[in-house]
Design goal:
This protein is of the alpha+beta class. The chain is built from ten helices and four strands. Helix content is 65%, strand content 12%.
Length: 468
C-alpha cells in the first residue's frame, strides 16, 4: 500500500507568479526548517544532554572490562610484595603433644604411661640466594607490566566511549537528514500531483516522486532503528538510560594532528606504547629467568636459629631422673649446595636462552605493529580532514545545484526526477559530512592511542568542541 502524503497548504503551492529567486529562497527555508525539526526530534531532552567527559567518568565507574583490568592491576602490587618476602626473615613454630602407655613384663606390674609436650621455634634469614633475588626482580617488572596493562585498558575505554558517543550523534544526524529529505520529497510529490491535475506535467513525475517518497520512508525506518541500536550500546557502556550526547559547536573546528610528521609519532610510540613497554618487560623477565637458571647451581647461605622446649611426665623408671622441662637453643649458618641434579640445570639454561630469543622477537613484532598502526592512524586523520573539506565544498555545491535544478524545473528545462535527485544528494552530503567530522575526532583519539599518548586529558580536549 502506498503512503499518501498530507495535502499542502495554499501557501506552499508553486504558482507561475513565483519568481525564481523567491522560489529558491522559500525551498531553502523549508528544507532548513525540516532539518532542524528532525534534529530536535532526534534529540529528546537536549537541555539535559551529557557531554563526553561526564559519560567517560560514568563508564570508568561502570564498565566491567575496565574494572576487571583495574582489579588485576591492584592485585599485582600484592603479588610483588609476596616475592619481596623471599628476601626477608621468616619464622615458623611447630609443637607436638603425645601420650604413651607401656605394659612392662613381670608379675604384678601395672601399665606405665608417659606424657610429653614439645615446641620448636625456627628462624631463617637469607644471606645469599641468587635465585630469590632474580625472582624478586621479576616480580617488580611484573608490577610495571600490570600498570601498562591498566593504562592500555583505560585508553581502550576512552576510545570505546568516544566511538559510542559519536556513533549516536552520527545516527541522529542520519535520521535528521533522512527526515528532512522525506519532507522535501513530500513537498515535491504534492507539487507533482498538483501539476498533473492542472495538466502541466505527466503522471511520470508523480510516480517518480511517489517512488522516492516510499524509499525515503524505508530509509527513515532503518535510520530510526540504527539510532535506537547505537543508543542502547552507549547506555550499556556508561550504565545510564536514555543518554543524550551533546552535538558539536557550530561552526565546527577540527584540530589537525601535531606534530605533522608521522615519523615523530612513531618515535614516541616506540617508547610510550603500552604493548611495546610490556614486550620490553617481557624480554627483561626472560633475561632474569636465564639468570635464575644459572644461579640454581650456586649455593645458598642462610642464618638459622632454633629454640626448642619440651616437657615429659610419667611413671616409667627411665623418667625418674629426667622428668620435667628442658630447653635447647641453637644459632648458626646453613649452606645448601646442589652438586648434581641429573643435568636439569644445564637443560633449564638452554630452555631459557630459547625463551629469550622468543621474547626478542615478540618485542620486535610489537614495535613493528605499533609503528604500522601509528602511521595508519595518522594518515587516517589526515585523509579524514581532507574529506571533511571536500564534503564542505560538496555541501555548498549541492545547495547551489539544488537551487539551479529547482529553477530549471520551474522554467521547464528540468524534470521532477532531477529535483528529487538533487535533494537526495544534498541531504546525503550533509549526512556524510557530519559522519566524516565524527570520524576525524575519533580518529584523533585512535592516533594518540596508537602512539601510546592517549590520556583522560584528551577527552577534555574533545569535550571543548561540544556545544555547552
Amino acid at each position: 500500500m502506498r503512503t499518501t502524503p498530507p495535502s499542502p497548504s495554499a501557501g506552499g503551492r508553486l504558482t507561475p507568479s513565483n519568481s525564481p529567486s523567491a522560489l529558491a529562497s522559500a525551498l531553502t527555508r523549508a528544507l532548513t526548517s525540516a532539518f532542524v525539526g528532525s534534529m530536535l526530534l532526534a534529540l529528546p531532552g537536549l537541555a539535559a544532554a551529557q557531554n563526553l567527559q561526564s559519560l567517560y567518568e560514568a563508564a570508568r565507574a561502570y564498565d566491567a572490562t575496565y574494572l576487571a583490568a583495574r582489579a588485576l592491576a591492584n592485585s599485582a602490587q600484592f603479588r610483588a610484595e609476596q616475592a619481596e618476602a623471599l628476601l626477608r626473615p621468616s619464622a615458623a613454630l611447630t609443637a607436638t603433644a603425645g601420650t604413651s602407655q607401656t605394659d612392662l613384663p613381670g608379675a604384678g606390674m601395672n601399665a606405665k604411661g608417659t606424657h610429653s609436650v614439645s615446641g620448636t621455634l625456627n628462624g631463617r634469614y637469607p644471606l645469599f640466594n641468587s635465585v630469590n633475588k632474580a625472582t624478586v626482580e621479576q616480580a617488580r617488572k611484573g608490577l610495571i607490566s600490570a600498570q601498562a596493562d591498566l593504562e592500555s585498558s583505560e585508553q581502550d575505554l576512552i576510545v570505546r566511549v568516544a566511538q559510542g558517543y559519536f556513533d549516536v550523534l552520527g545516527a541522529q544526524d542520519a535520521l535528521a537528514a533522512t527526515r528532512a529529505n522525506k519532507t522535501a520529497i513530500t513537498e515535491q510529490l504534492a507539487s507533482a500531483k498538483r501539476s498533473f491535475e492542472v495538466g502541466t506535467a505527466t503522471i511520470t513525475d508523480t510516480r517518480e516522486a511517489q517512488a522516492k517518497f516510499d524509499l525515503a520512508t524505508a530509509q527513515e525506518i532503518a535510520a530510526e532503528n540504527d539510532l535506537r541500536t547505537k543508543r542502547i550500546a552507549l547506555d550499556t557502556l556508561v550504565g545510564n538510560n536514555n543518554v543524550a550526547p551533546r552535538p558539536l559547536k557550530v561552526p565546527v573546528v577540527l584540530p589537525s594532528p601535531l606534530p605533522a610528521n608521522p615519523e615523530e609519532w612513531v618515535t614516541v610510540a616506540d617508547q610510550a606504547h603500552p604493548s611495546v613497554r610490556r614486550a620490553r618487560i617481557g624480554l627483561d623477565v626472560a633475561l632474569l629467568e636465564s639468570t635464575k637458571a644459572r644461579a640454581s647451581g650456586l649455593p645458598t647461605v642462610d642464618a638459622v636459629a632454633a629454640l626448642t622446649g619440651s616437657d615429659a611426665r610419667g611413671s616409667l623408671p627411665t623418667l625418674s631422673r629426667s622428668a620435667g622441662t628442658a630447653t635447647v637453643a641453637s644459632v648458626g649458618v646453613q649452606m645448601n649446595w646442589t652438586l648434581f641434579n641429573g643435568g636439569a640445570t644445564q637443560n633449564r639454561i638452554k630452555e631459557t636462552l630459547s625463551l629469550e630469543e622468543k621474547s626478542r622477537n615478540d618485542l620486535e613484532a610489537a614495535r613493528r605493529g605499533v609503528a604500522q598502526s601509528t602511521r595508519v592512524a595518522f594518515f587516517g586523520v589526515q585523509s579524514g580532514l581532507a574529506q571533511v573539506k571536500a564534503l564542505e565544498a560538496a555541501e555548498s555545491s549541492s545547495k547551489l545545484a539544488l537551487e539551479a535544478t529547482q529553477l530549471g524545473y520551474k522554467v521547464g528545462v528540468r524534470v521532477n526526477l532531477d529535483v528529487l535527485n538533487a535533494q537526495t544528494q544534498l541531504f546525503s552530503t550533509q549526512r556524510d559530512l557530519a559522519k566524516a567530522r565524527y570520524d576525524v575526532l575519533v580518529g584523533s583519539l585512535r592516533l594518540r592511542q596508537a602512539s601510546g599518548q592517549l590520556t583522560p586529558a584528551d577527552v577534555q580536549a574533545i569535550n571543548q568542541l561540544l556545544a555547552p
